[in-house]
Amino acid sequence: MRVLFVTELSIYPPLGIMYLSSMLKRNGHYTRLVNMDYINIKNALYEQHFDIVAFSISSVLYWESLRICQKIKREFDVYIIYGGAHPTVSPEMFAYDVIDAVCIGEGEEALLDLVQKLDEGREIKNILNFWLRINGRFYKNSVRPLIKDLDSLPFPDRELIKNDSPNSSDIQPIITSRGCSYGCSFCLQPFYRQLYKDHNCRIRQRSIDNVIAELKYIKENFQARLILFYDSTFNLNPQWVSRFCDRYIKEKINIPFVCQLRIDAISLENIRYLKDAGCRLVGIGIESGNEYVRNVIFKKRISNSQIGRAIEIMKKIKLDFYTNNIIGLPWLPVEYDYQTLRLNIRYKPSFANVNFPQPYPKTELFYIFVKKYNLENNFFMNLLKNNALFVNTRYLFNHKKKKEKRKIENLHHLFPIIIRFPVLLSVVPLLISIPLGKFYLLLFKLITGDFEYRLVSIEKRRVRILIRRLVASSKRILNEIQRASKIHYF
Q1: At the fourth CATH level, which superfamily is domain 2-140?
Q2: 3-class DSSP state for residue 53?
Q3: CB 407 within 8 Å of CB 431
Q4: Distance between CA 63 and CA 387 in Å, rounded?
Q5: What burial letters (b/e) apply to 379-418, b meaning 16+ CB within 10 Å?
Q6: What is the CATH number of domain 155-398?
Q7: pTM
Q8: Which residues of the chain have pLDDT under 50?
Q9: Among 59, 48, 57, residue whose Cα is nearest residue 81
Q10: Cα within 13 Å of Cα(460), Cβ side
Q11: Are strands 52-56 and 257-261 parallel, antiparallel or unpaired?
């Protein structure tokens, strides 16, 4: 069969779709990937015949994808599948006539199962991991066991993104494990553990041989300047990390890489291994400068002293790091966010990534919001269906006064700027009180865009690549100016 994958493309390739594609191709099916835009999808369907259109979406793309899906169904006779994080946690939100199937959980074996049976004209109503609409009736199936041997999977289909994803050759993603043993309240991992509770949901690790083989394939076939490890916590198994780094050096992979580390699992030995192997940057989750917020609300289970110790180790080894932060919990005063700002200034990360809290459905943070404001469980679902959730952050702050909303939004936009120029710290209360939201947003986009540029420009820059980046950055800045001009700020 012929499958057209649809998602929102960025400079970070869609590794999940690449795995699905390679699984289908290994079994004789044809696949293609397009950006989630109606014109792109329409053109692809006119250019080639496709039997299936498979959407991979997050909560952010929910409503837009449904509008596109309705148009496609009116014009083309195709079977439409939804998959991804949001369909997994809330499949009931996709019970529309225009959607034929919703994939829940791990998709490689499930999607292949469905495609094979559709191709052969066999019964599909009992396929595990799928909710299926057949003759107006919805069949709801449970999940199958997780794939135990990750080495059995084919390598991700990197040819799929060769011409369609921005910077597709510069940045090559890879994942060495699946699962997480921690329980952060803003993350879906606790939900996944509950979803697979009858199937021994656990952390699964690829063998070092298998990972090295994929890295060699990347090196031989792509002009990658950066390897991006997608593991949520790369250092879950310190012994695996040290052995992997040793092989990375011995096999002369010689491509710099970036990974995410768990703060309380950082050790001097492993940071030295990572640095020697070619790691150029690591991400760490601080989330909040306030220990109560970090550990009681976000369930991070990391102390300020552990943060200080980990950063001291990285500075000693001279390994650059960036931080992940969350500000703007609507029931807390802005002073809590100042603590997060000051903690980042104290430790001087290469970059500070900052986000508003996103209470995604079925996360513990979602239920905290529901309980905090006596909301119905479907409150956020209704907002999402009406295109209000995740479009911007004002739904978070509807319990605050107008001036407080402005302060929180302005602090978000200025956060990485103030860390880069800490002399501004003393005037933060004044800066965030001024109604310059559009200007601050533009500055925020400029500085985050600069970080992305530096991320993919770690090695020597060739003139051609430099020109391409500058043109792309200019277009992005112009688009942000246009978009900002349409946004109403308090």
Answers
A1: Response regulator (3.40.50.2300)
A2: strand
A3: no
A4: 6
A5: bbbeebeeeebbeebebbbeebeeeebbbbbbbbbbbbbb
A6: 3.20.20.70
A7: 0.87
A8: 387-395, 458-467, 481, 484-490
A9: 57
A10: 1
A11: unpaired
